[in-house]
Amino acid sequence: MKKILRIKLKPLLLLAICVTPALSVAQTVVTGTVLSGDDGQPLPGVNILIKGSTTGTTTDIDGNYSISVQDDNSILVFSFVGYSSQEITVSSRNRIDLSLNPDISQLEEIVVIGYGTQQTRDLTSAISTIKTEEITTTPNSNPMQALQGKVAGVQITSNGSPGASPNVRVRGLGSITGNNDPLYVVDGMFVDNIDFLNSTDIANISVLKDASASAIYGVRGANGVVLIETNSGQYNQPTKIVYDGYYGVQVPQNVLQMSNSEQFANYVRQTGNDPEIELIENAIGRYGRSRVNPNLPVTNTDWYNEVMTDAAPIQNHSLTISGGNDRARYSVGGSYFNQEGLIDHMRNDYERLNFRGKIDAIANDWLTVGANITLSNATQFNADNAVWFQTYFAIPTLPVFDELNTDASPTAFGNAQQIGYRGRQNPFFVMENNDNRNRVGKILGNFYADFEILPEKLSFKTSYNYFYNNIQVRNVDLAYNDGEREFQNGLTRISETSYNQIWDNVLTYQNNFGDHNLTLTGGYSYRSEVFEENQSRAEDIRTLTRNEEDWYIPDNSEVNTSETFSDGDELFGISFFGRAAYNYKDKYLLYGTYRRDGTNRFAGFAKWGDFYTIGAGWVLTEENFFNVPGIDFFKLRAGYGEIGNEGINPAIGQTTFNQIGLAIGDELVTGVRPDNVFDLVTTWETTAETNVGVSARFLNQRLSLEADWFQRDTEDAVVNVFQPGAGEFVRRNAGSVRNSGLELALNWSDNVGDISYNIGANFATLDNEVLSVGNQVALDAGSAEFRQRSAEGSGIREFFGYEIIGVFQTQEDVTNSGYTTDFISTNNLEPGDFHFRDQNGDGIINADDRVFLGSFLPSYTFGFNFGITYRNLSLTAFLQGQGGNKILNRKRGEIIFTQDTNIDADLANNFWDGAGSTNEYPSASGYRKPYNNNQLSEFLLEDGDYFRIQNVRIAYLFDNKELMGMKLPKTTVSFTAERPLTLFDYNGFNPEVADGVDRQTYPIPAIYTFGLNIEL
Amino acid sequence: MKRFIIYFRVLLTASLLYSCTDQLDEPLQNEPIGLEFDEGGQLAIALSAYQDLYNLGWEIHPTIAMRGDDVNKGGGTDQPQMGLHDEFVYDPGYWFYNNTWNGFYSDILTGFYVAIEEIEKVNDVVEDPTLGNQYIAEVKVMIGFELLHIVRLWGDILIPESSDSEEFAELPVTSREDALRYISDLMDEAIPQLPNMRPNQREDILGGVTQHTALAVKAMANLDLENYQEAANATSEIIESGLFTLYDDYYNLFKKPGELSDEILFELQYSDFGSPSTATGDFNHLFNFYGPLGVGWDPAVEGASAGWGFWEPTFKYIEFMLNREDNTRLETSVLFTPAGVEELNNRGFTDLPSFTNASGDFIYTRDGDGIGNHARALFHSGKHYLPTTQISTGVTRFNSGKNFILIRYSEVLLMHAEAIVSGGTSSSISAEAAVNLVRERADLDPVASVDLDAVLDEKYAELGMEWGIRFADVVRHGRTNELNENGKVYNPAEDRFIPYPTAQVDQLPQLNN
């Protein structure tokens, strides 16, 4: 099959060869074949240049070349992307065959750094790069998920909901109230998220971690920058057709064990709450008595089992066709991604169809033009409506279906209200009668023209980038009856559209003056971000049935005015920027950028801001005096930069007058509300960061080390300043936050005979500290019952509550607690209640005894990777984890609001039930007692540490194989296990809770996929 | 060619620099900053103050009104902290207290004073500020009314005089007496600017504040000050105006027909405007707190929602009413469950009025809504129940569209009587005349003479279940033994006022529990 294709392709190739520059004087003709050093296959498209001239050629599809040289002493330079270049002197030879070896030295690697590129060896800042192979192995809709545990200093928190994006944080949290997401730059366009890209569309990802690297992005750089280059074809590349895909299943992992009917009934009986004990009898009366245990109802519903599917499919298929001649290159492809959700009885999935095309053309000797378009069309069915929350609390004594509930329609689900509970406790009502669909259309376009003004020295590139993002939300609540109450239908439709554009104009000058190498970049950028939103909601729509085709808001329907509105943004940015990168003999490195950003976001307060960085590096191994065996490369580097975060909501900064409505005499009357409690945000948040690092290669480049220390201080952080009396918070630029940490990455790779392997580890620490919350003692977050607080010296939104000494075991313990007798009697303290630490020793436990109890941010994260290849078989494994963070088990905390619900099995099994039983859990009745639960305490805070086998993949490459006489294309088959094992102590579905408050999280499944990659 | 390119680039850059920088002055979108500087604009702002007044959280009801001997916390063990509040065990961290504090003070600062300040700005440019001044006076009455409730809850309080939050943070604590005097003076300031009519005679804002609303608030403040003469003067003025009469039908006073009747001096207005789509929390109140529960609810209109069952009239109140044979008012104030009636029988009340007769599992109200048994409460509130037949067609929301009475003429009459029997002198009718007007409407025989006991009993019977009036009465006259019912123990030295909320003490160091 390959042969046939080859023949077809020949004419195209010939054409390519024909248009290579003609040679003026033919003297000696040198021919030869270039092979790949790793597999011995011919290498097409290798560039061959006569050193010191502009004369050159490339190899054809069979790796053959032919070039005329004028001089026997001519030196031929063979170069190919991803391979080490070789220089060979002709020395009267007519035939030169050689093998090019893959570039093991990553030091020559070109890194994308924003408005330009730089060699790894010349970097002075903290930049991590990830290659496409590392991304495509992770089955997820968002390529960022693949970075979890792989980049020191980048924390990724997974999200199990179909099509949902993981939470990404680069080097901690700098903003208290604003956006902490990094900026994504896709081929030059700024976007908030890359959920519209398929992982096979991406050539490489560069994460600019420190200010020195990201300062070129000015007010957008403070949360780190993720640069993404999409795939291109290569010049002089034979046509390549690649199918890449996988199909697999998502399997719920670590399913939380809830109390069964027996445990639940025991718990209720232990509380001694008679009205509620009676409800157990009611359940027996209505649903029948268990024959096994006559004290229990026959019902014993495992709600997670009812709600959740055993295995949900996930699949991705992509096809890419790429190629190029010496004047043009292209890459065209499409992909289809589909992920089903874990909820079984509600539409809950994500489907995405993408198409893309990228062309670059060398129009003439001074002009290169290109265009690049990505279209993404996705449909997502969300299962929110608090399904997971309701499932957790649903009582096991209630059946899913209840034939006696004859008033219910359309389905007779069990309703706990009918046996006396306050809530109906059955998530199936919500699952059956809600449907939430998002349709998402995104278009990303880049168009550029690159003018070469002085060959190889001065060029000018102008590019226009466009991003269109449209989201159509349709949330339907269908009419139903739960047996107790009629629920009317309702329909919300939201339309959100963004039209963003960026026009970049960049001038790049590059020259070598002897040993002095200089690259200068200067540019101008114009940016506009237009956003429009319309929302409408109507209820009790007569024409709205269960048929999807009439889910519209009809004419003459009465809309809910409070949920019908429009809004918009028109934000503009103008920037001037420049960069200088200098090195002397690749030994002394200097680097600096400057950006002047203008914005209308701050309503005229801060219009222009200046952001800059300086960096320096010293490559010790280039020094003559440095000669340590085993150290091939050693670079010290340091950088300092100031960057901005404009990812804070704009604020008008003056009194506004908003329309209000009220009932006067049963008529709707409108008025105008003056609002003088307004946010005054006059400027962006500014982050100043110092980064010091080491890059080194040891033992013939087999061992590499990257180490960084950073400290980043965010000033003018927007904080909510409480307005006493108004009872409201207003936003002011009054806070200050520090993040500091160490990052370490070590990698070893080597070959032993036919086996090549690599092993690596990364580790990062993070210390997040609030330096100031403005002129106030503390900045509170969370609700009063589950307080989180930011104060000088604490982390952002640290948990704040009572420290627990233990559980009172005896009445004597209570008496000797140091609490006043009045306090003990008022609160009716008894064994089984918590012994809280009386921090101020006044004998009373109250708000004054609250202390900081830990942060939701992990203090360390780590990852390991391992890969081994034996001939055509390869195995890779990634492991990762984190620690030092706390998770608020808010589900257990809900007891303060509603008591007649189910509890998890761990809790039910561990209640204090007599002296010596436990010193950690309260008694069942104590669990419900205000004294024990009216403030956040350590009881609800659990360790978020976890260790996970993130990804294991086995792949086999079929190459040069024949099947029934037909030559098979190059085929890789693989099996991947994503997240097969996670170890943690937390009493929840998973320890990945981005903000540390677990009220309900979507379970994160393990995924097992079978993958196929075919290359023609 | 090269030269051309360089020129081209320079030209390009220069032209776009010139054209784009003015976009940095583009205003932010959708930020309304305009206001009509005329009387229409003033009315619009005054309406926003009414909206702030009408808009209150459900937790404010129990905070204000649950401590009296007319009502107990229902709901079983649900919301245990509410139970502690009912039992005079106050936790400064309790969210009810903080929300109530924030609710009232944010109304006063960001609703009422902002409105006053903005109306004043328009006053500076309109020809005749009379109307503007009237609106300002109306808002002052709202301030006075909310401050009065803050005083009744916390005793010594902060008295803001502008919308300025920084100024508020520095306010000294004002003693309870000074605060009550301040309220009385504020009403004196407002009265001359206000229309002399009933709220239901207002044309611009139907149901809005009038002189008599202000006088009633003034009377309340002076009662609490035990300045009975001032209280009697204020109530006399209202009585002598001759504008107000008691609504004939006590039962329906608390239903749709009684809304904005001639008895009303102050009423919060809510509506669903006759449609389910507008039966939202925006124009409607969340009355669920008061209502009977879904199990034990057989509404006349199928599908009508029930409530949460937290508001349980006490045995003490019911037995008091039964002993008085005060049946009209008992039927209006209390919804009976069969279990409640059984318990009354057990307590020796066997000869009960016919409205307590069960039919099957339910006791039906005269409007046909059945009240059944539920573990959470034996009785429910009748005054806070709107018959489902009076709710707009298709609306299932509990009590949808029901107004909430704040001050009515019968309270004015009984405050008048209370002031006189406590030492004040009437310039209008006698204490007996006032009490008998109220008794007559309740289908009771007149009494020849009244003393403080009789007046307080009459208030208990007439105003039971209404916004903390009973608790204020018994603590004012030191009759706090009355509160020791159903196992609760009131400590007069400590339990009159609730502690300042922790969240406020954190921010306002001048507050100290």
Helix content of chain A: under 10%
Distance between the termini of chain A: 9 Å
Shape by Cα distribution of chain B = globular
Percentage of residues in strands of chain A: over 45%
Number of DSSP E strands of chain B: 9
Q: What's the average pLDDT of chain A? A: 90
Strand order of the largest sheet of chain B: 3-7-6
Largest sheet data of chain A: 22 strands, antiparallel, barrel
Number of strands of chain A: 53
Compute the number of helices of chain A: 14
What's the helical proportion of residues of chain B? Answer: 40-55%
User: Oligomerization state of this entry?
Assistant: heterodimer
Backbone CA Rg of chain A: 32 Å
Give a description of the structure.
The complex is a heterodimer of chains A (1016) and B (513). Chain A has 1016 residues and is mainly beta. Chain A has 14 helices and 53 strands. In chain A, a hairpin with a 2-residue loop joins strand 45 and strand 46 (873-883). By secondary structure, chain B is mainly α. A three-stranded antiparallel β-sheet of chain B has the order 3-7-6, with no helix packed on it. In chain B, strands 1-4 form a two-stranded antiparallel sheet. In chain B, helix 2 runs antiparallel to helix 5, helix 9 (211-224) packs parallel to helix 15 and helix 15 packs antiparallel against helix 17 (452-463). The interface between A and B is large, with 100 and 103 residues.
Summarize the structure.
The complex is a heterodimer of chains A (1016) and B (513). With 1016 residues, chain A is mainly beta.
Fold topology:
The complex is a heterodimer of chains A (1016) and B (513).
Chain A: H1 2-18, E1 28-36, E2 47-50, E3 56-58, E4 64-69, E5 75-79, E6 86-89, E7 98-100, E8 110-112, E9 117-119, E10 127-131, H2 132-136, E11 154-157, E12 167-170, E13 183-186, E14 189-191, E15 202-208, H3 211-214, E16 225-230, E17 237-251, H4 261-271, H5 274-287, H6 303-307, E18 312-324, E19 328-340, E20 349-364, E21 367-382, H7 387-393, H8 428-433, E22 434-454, E23 458-477, E24 480-481, E25 486-487, E26 490-513, E27 516-539, E28 565-584, E29 588-599, E30 608-619, E31 631-645, E32 656-664, E33 667-675, E34 685-698, E35 703-723, E36 728-752, E37 755-765, E38 767-773, E39 779-781, E40 788-790, E41 798-801, E42 804-807, H9 811-815, H10 821-826, E43 834-836, E44 851-854, E45 860-870, E46 873-883, E47 886-888, H11 890-893, H12 905-910, H13 924-927, H14 930-933, E48 941-943, E49 946-958, E50 962-963, E51 966-967, E52 970-984, E53 1006-1015
Chain B: H1 2-20, H2 39-54, H3 60-65, E1 71-73, H4 80-86, H5 95-123, H6 130-154, H7 165-169, H8 176-190, H9 211-224, H10 228-241, H11 250-253, E2 264-268, E3 297-298, E4 311-313, H12 315-324, H13 327-333, E5 334-336, H14 338-346, E6 363-364, E7 370-371, E8 379-381, E9 404-408, H15 409-421, H16 431-441, H17 452-463, H18 469-476, H19 502-507
Antiparallel strand pairs in B: 1-4, 2-9, 3-7, 5-8, 6-7
Helix pairs in contact in B: 2-5, 2-6, 5-6, 6-8, 6-9, 8-9, 9-10, 9-15, 10-15, 15-16, 15-17, 17-18
